[in-house]
Design brief:
The complex is a heterodimer. By secondary structure, chain A is mainly beta. Helix content of chain A is 0%, strand content 57%. Chain A has one domain: Sandwich (Immunoglobulin-like). Chain B has one domain: Immunoglobulins (Immunoglobulin-like, Sandwich). In chain B, the strands form two sheets. In chain B, strands 2, 4, 5, 6, 9, 10 and 11 form a seven-stranded mixed beta sheet that branches. Chain B has a four-stranded antiparallel beta sheet with strand order 1-3-8-7, with no helix packed on it. In chain B, a hairpin with a 5-residue loop joins strand 4 and strand 5. The chains are: A mainly beta, B mainly beta.
């Protein structure tokens, strides 16, 4: 059974388009995260949700809008995509920061 | 605020040992270590908490010097499977939900 899953795995799109990435976890965790990993492998947190509520928004452009319909799902919608949005986006879940985070397989977004 | 890791890269022969360091300019509540293989997701290795508690895999060892805001990950008798990029993540508050990951250390183990 997959613990944290993301769809799609690859996403290639044109500048200006809108796209969504979906994430689901079956671990029963209350906390979910979105991370962005750039071409230099720098891994940076974007958002953190706890029980469907936004806890952290790391000064991410408001073109990025996370949505958590329930505590097992955290989706990421991106409007007006820009070249600089190209990266690998990881979803993760956990109990809290005193415990491990489980990462999804990642979504490689390429904006042309 | 991003923790600094050293070395940036290291190449080992199988069986050799290595130490990866993580240093922060701010006081830390906990340090987390993850390994990421090429094209894959980061995988948890260990958490070191202020006060001395540790959680992680038995075959991994690490230290946390709270006064110096530093942590070190010790890889002994390295195996080919140890290859990957190692990240430390730091939690400054203990009460939040934010990890700030370091610059990464690329480790390659060769025969």
């Amino acid at each position: 059974d997959t613990a944290v899953s993301q769809t799609p795995k690859y996403l290639v799109t044109q500048m200006g388009n809108d796209k969504s990435i979906k994430c689901e976890q079956n671990l029963g965790h209350d906390t979910m995260y979105w991370y962005k990993q750039d071409s230099k492998k720098f891994l940076k947190i974007m958002f953190s949700y706890n029980n469907k509520e936004l806890i952290i928004n790391e000064t991410v452009p408001n073109r990025f809008s996370p949505k958590s319909p329930d505590k097992a799902h955290l989706n990421l919608h991106i409007n007006s995509l820009e070249l600089g949005d190209s990266a690998v986006y990881f979803c993760a879940s956990g109990i809290g920061l005193a415990d491990e985070q489980f990462f999804g397989p990642g979504t490689r977004l390429t904006v042309l | 605020q991003q923790p600094v890791q050293s070395p940036q890269a290291v190449i080992l022969r199988e069986g050799e040992d290595a130490v990866i360091n993580c240093s922060s300019s701010k006081a830390l509540y906990s340090v987390h270590w993850y390994r990421q293989k090429h094209g894959e997701a980061p995988v948890f290795l260990m958490i070191l908490l202020k006060g001395g508690e540790q959680k992680g895999h038995d075959k991994i060892s690490a230290s946390f010097n709270e006064k110096k805001q530093q942590s070190s990950l010790y890889l002994t008798a390295s195996q080919l499977s140890y290859s990957g990029t190692y990240f430390c993540g730091t939690d400054l508050t203990g009460g939040g939900n934010k990890l700030t990951f370091g610059t990464g250390t690329q480790l390659k183990v060769e025969l």
